[in-house]
Amino acid sequence: MFATVTRSEGALLSTHTSIDADTVWELVVARAAQTPDFILITDENDRTLTCAQYRHAAERAAAGFYAEGVRPGDTVAWQLPTWIETIVLLGALARLGVRQVPVLPVYRDRELGFCLVQTGASLLCVPATWRGVDYAAMAARVAEALPGLEVRVCDRSLPDGDPATLPAPPAADTTRDVRWIYYTSGTTADPKGAQHTDHSSIAAGKAFCVRQHVRFADRFGMAFPFTHVGGLNNLLAGLREGMGLVCVEAFDPAMSAAVFTKNHVTLVGGAPAFYLSFIELQRKNPGVSVLPEVRFMSGGGAPMPPEMHLEVKREIGGLGIGHGWGMTESCITAINDPTDTDEHLMYTSGRAVLGMEIKAVLPDGSTAAAGVDGEMRVRGDSVMVGYLDPALNADAFDADGWFRTGDIGHLDVDGYVVITGRMKDIIIRKGENISAKEIEDLLYAHPKVIDAAVIGLPDRDRGEMVCAVVECRDGNDPLTEAELAQYCNDAQIMRQKIPERLEVVDTLPRNATGKILKHELRARYSARP
Ligand code: ADP
């Protein structure tokens, strides 16, 4: 069940220590010095970079960018797949002390343009074409309206230069400067630019390592896009502990599992949509684990049906899922310790991570007691310094500096976080609040259902009606309204919560991190009675 540590890694284990650093670049340098030959990054084409090679490649690319005119303090956006070169580019720009704007590859003209205008980026790095999308053409279209923006096509290639020409790296006292602007994936409204610092990003990486017992020579299979804030956080975790990253340029369950297995992956990171893909893959391949050396899966970003933890533990193996609660604005905020009880792993998102505080707040502003739902607010090291658009900040933080997450939930008596919904994800039926998540969890457990989203649709009599949108295991034998009603009755939930409308879809619309796009479903079904 546990990964083999090679002989040279075994020798290093005795000398290895976790690295604390003020800046991202300092972390790169310290890791390269401590374990130069440890393989930091591997991709699906068996290309690798050791810690020393990573530092070297990043320095050369930094010098190349410098020669092309990029200066410390500039703003550079990059919309690139999860390639080794992308991770090198991040290191190169960190070496230069540039403000980085990683952009999800799924963004198109509208969202990309929005990010570029708002950040005032002077350079955008894109692939020529990737997976059928002409990124160079899109970048050119967007740049036409932005005279200050240059476009650089980085097709698995980066500029090259002599590191001796580089200016000094960022000083330790720049650790709280804004260096990262991550856009929320926009399941709600326009993307919002969350400003992070090296301090907040490094804190998130450390917190993940501490809570999830990351150790030297672990290998982390990165299922989600590197441009997500989790990409940076996991890279920093890898640099801190000497945890290798195994990357795939785009997620495909069978291919990713094969690459992860071949490279002795011990931890898999993602979100419920990724856990689900691996469970489905395992069911198609009974008998042999599709991820044989994985200790546990971890991730966050969306609600997880409780059964998923047991499904992973029982069917794939290992400890199951150490799920967490996090967001672009505050990175990993709470996450489970994978050695916690099944009860905690199934029903909670774990306790606040190192450096973070969490509380549930009642509508009158007081702190909710254990077990009582309120608006979840967070404070601490991994929270962004604010949105790039200052107009958003007045509402985003309360008077005491707590970030209002917009999520509803509570802390249990032991301080474990339970997210029960989202302020905008409550269905108000005849004045009664109904949590979509509760019904989704129930539907997920139905044998015919792969995944489900429950939404409120405008309704003249009820204000909103409860609509279930489900993806079924067998398209020829979908869930019927009668079966749904029977199932909900058997589960003895109150009648008002039983979905009044059922829509069966081939696939639920999801964003890049696999979160179901409920606003799309609402728009789709509100239009059609
Ligand atoms: P967006 O707000 O655009 O969806 P993010 O990708 O940053 O952006 O998503 C963060 C949100 O995802 C959280 O505010 C929360 O609603 C949801 N989320 C994250 N983790 C969990 C979890 N463990 N349980 C329930 N919801 C979660």
TrEMBL record:
One of its GO terms (biological process) is fatty acid metabolic process. GO terms for molecular function: medium-chain fatty acid-CoA ligase activity. Keywords: Ligase. Gene3D superfamilies: 3.30.300.30, N-terminal domain of ligase-like (3.40.50.12780). Residues 438-515 form the AMP-binding enzyme C-terminal domain. The keyword Transport does not apply. Residues 30-388 form the AMP-dependent synthetase/ligase domain. The keyword Ligase applies. Belongs to the ATP-dependent AMP-binding enzyme family. This is Unannotated protein. It comes from freshwater metagenome.
